Amino acid sequence: MNIFQRINNNKFVTAISILIFIMILYWFYTNVRPEIKNINRNTIGILGHRGMSKSYHYPGNSLPSILEALRIGAIGCELDIQLAKDGSLVAYHHEDLNQYTNFNGAIRDYDADELTNCHYKGDYPEKVSLVLVDQLFELLGKNSKYIFSFDCKFNIDGEKDEIAYYIEFIDAIEMLINKHLLDNKIFIEADHVDFHRLLKLRKINVLQFITGHGVEKGLRIASELGLFGIGVGSRISKKGVEKAHNLGFYVMTWTPTNPFSNAKAVRKNPDYIQTANLAHLVKFLGEGKENQKDK
After folding, report:
1. Where are the beta strands (DSSP E) in the chain?
2. How far apart are CA 149 and CA 141, in angstroms?
3. What confidence score (pLDDT) does residue 8 get?
4. Taking the mean position of all CA atoms in its chain, how far away is CA 130?
5. What global pTM score does this model have?
6. What whole-number distance in Å separates Cα of residue 41 and Cα of residue 250?
7. Which residues pair with 46 in a beta bridge?
8. Residues with Cβ within 8 Å of residue 245, at least 6 apart in sequence
9. How far is it, in rounded angstroms, from Cα 157 to Cα 152?
10. 142 by DSSP, 3-state: which?
């Protein structure tokens, strides 16, 4: 073997050694749970983002996706919530129905009864209808142990008064909570400050998170209105989480999509994580429901 062959062999061995070292570090980072310190009893509540998000063969916000998230260990789910024409709450993310369903227009254009015939387009094992939130909780039963975070989508008709719309939305939330005995089991995410202010005045037993304003402004709003916490993307810094905790506010973050981003989010010590990779996060932190026992 000449000197050039030995050099090439040494480079190959070095490269393989570095690769193995990186793989070991990655495995450790994404599989070994760190110590968690937050104001949620040093535990992180695991929420499925729209149920199973894009990691499942049914669409997010659909019943199969929600039930699968609960089955594999989430303490609950984040759902995008819109108001139908008759004041019912419907789980749906987009502004209009045209691209993703067999209907045209917006959720606000239809009564709940009409929307029972609305289903998602796509090659799914069965027809997947939109979720009427009242029917979801009928299925789960009263005093459900699960937590649901309602990401309120204000798809307001341009001719409708904004405050009147907020009040109608709040009426629907209150009716749902009273009917299904959901005190303190519903998180409310919204970026509209006036909506949060009106909701706070109603004294409904929900936990309110201001979203869409970042850490500094979000904390100012949460402090002014006496909210429960702030909702921010998973790019929030660990110092940002600590600042919120020092002021007594809970932090809910979203949406890590893979084992590495899950692990990175956990190491910032938020109180709740909405994840698009639920199976990994449940395994990484331990069973979600056990992780939240006696809370």
Report:
1. 45-49, 76-83, 89-91, 131-132, 147-152, 186-190, 207-211, 229-233, 250-254, 272-275
2. 17
3. 59
4. 18
5. 0.91
6. 11
7. 273
8. 38, 39, 251, 269
9. 15
10. coil
